[in-house]
Amino acid sequence: MPDLLEAGGLRLVEVAPPVVPADVRAAMDREWGEAVLANPALFDGPVAVCAGLSWEAPDDLLVAWSRVTYRYFALRRVPGATAPRSLFVSVVQPTDDGRVLVGRMSSSTVAPGRWQFPGGSVEPPTGDEPLDESGLRRHAAVELAEETGVDVPAADLTRCLVTHGEDGQVGVHYLAPPLPASLLRGSFTALVAAETARGRVSEFDRIALVGSPAELPDLSGPHVGYLDPVVRWVSRRVGS
Questions:
Q1: DSSP readout, 160-207?
Q2: How many CB atoms lie within 10 A of CB 195?
Q3: What CATH topology corresponds to 3-237?
């Protein structure tokens, strides 16, 4: 069960990427190659990973992060290797009747059938731009639009929680303004139709609106570890 952290402030600091010995790197490359053969949709683009999480002040969190590429996650399949810890964002999109939107990952993704909030791994900025909370918020808004078709301005997202999983993964979760359920379903239907017309598979193959953790077992398939506690936390606040 991940820890739920309600931080007043959030600061991100870039640190050096992890050092991978040559033999471990060779094993990582082999595992990555096998993963790509199994799922050609995988790509070795840049990604930010969590290098450390600490309290900078009683209410402020400090996240140390590093630049790597997605193949580094193949270290999870190398015996004895230390794999990088994911740094991701997600969006809690409520309806105007207190439910929240969750989606099921499609067959083209790295976790087919898994239920989660809209979101994804954090990408490092280009050039000299810093990775800060404004960047996280923009990335979260992009993920929401790409996965559900719901277009919410980044400025309208409010950080509600940071989760820290037992595996070290850190998630920064943002709360969006409530929207009618009919609009959410219509936006997703239009997105899937547009992706199909382009010959592509949408990242979510299905969405659901849930009002409490008691409804999660009705969603067949695996759930991300943070889903139950975050839905529980949000249902007490959004639904109240």
A1: EEEEE-TT--EEEEEEPPPB-HHHHHHHHHHHHHHHHHTT---SEEEE
A2: 16
A3: Nucleoside Triphosphate Pyrophosphohydrolase (3.90.79)
Both tokens assigned to 164: 């820290």
* Strand-strand pairing, 119-121 and 100-105: unpaired
Q: What are the φ/ψ torsions at residue 203 (nearest 5 degrees)?
A: -65, -40
Confirm if 120 and 237 have CB atoms less than 8 A apart: no
* Helix, strand, coil share of the chain (percent; to 5): 30, 30, 35
Q: Residue written as tokens 């989606």?
A: 103
Cα–Cα distance list, 77 to 41, 66, 154, 222 (Å): 19, 20, 35, 20
Question: What phi and psi values does residue 210 have, to the nearest 5 degrees?
Answer: -120, 145
pLDDT (tens digit, 9 = 90+) per residue, 104-145?
Answer: 999 888 888 999 999 999 999 988 888 999 999 999 999 999
In whole angstroms, what is the distance from residue 223 CA to residue 103 CA? Answer: 10
